[in-house]
User: Which sequence fits this backbone?
């Protein structure tokens, strides 16, 4: 059976630029950095950047959602870092709001807030 989120891998065509972008977005320095992989520990899950794009088409159609205290601020910060809005902030029931952005490397990132 499925357990908690453990790892998200983003395939990127420029590892150094992606590393810098994710440092700016998360405010977290990677704990692992090599030419073949950069890893961040984001509150207990692994955000990995993989420069091997052989067989990978830019972007994806899956979004893992990261919790955000202030979803609008999270989207605005990502957009200020050249992300594109895929789905703007929307209420999806009760107090829960979601949004999806695409990083400059084509990966979709979801944000979710509320309970």
Assistant:
């Amino acid at each position: 059976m499925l357990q908690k989120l453990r790892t998200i891998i983003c395939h990127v065509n420029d590892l150094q630029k992606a590393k810098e972008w994710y440092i700016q977005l998360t405010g977290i320095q990677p704990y692992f950095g090599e030419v073949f992989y950069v890893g961040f520990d984001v509150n207990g899950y692994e955000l990995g950047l993989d420069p091997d794009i052989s067989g990978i088409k830019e972007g994806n159609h899956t979004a893992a959602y990261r919790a955000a205290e202030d979803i609008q601020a999270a989207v605005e910060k990502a957009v200020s870092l050249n992300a594109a809005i895929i789905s703007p902030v929307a209420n999806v029931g009760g107090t829960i709001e979601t949004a999806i952005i695409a990083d400059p490397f084509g990966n979709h990132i979801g944000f979710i807030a509320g309970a």
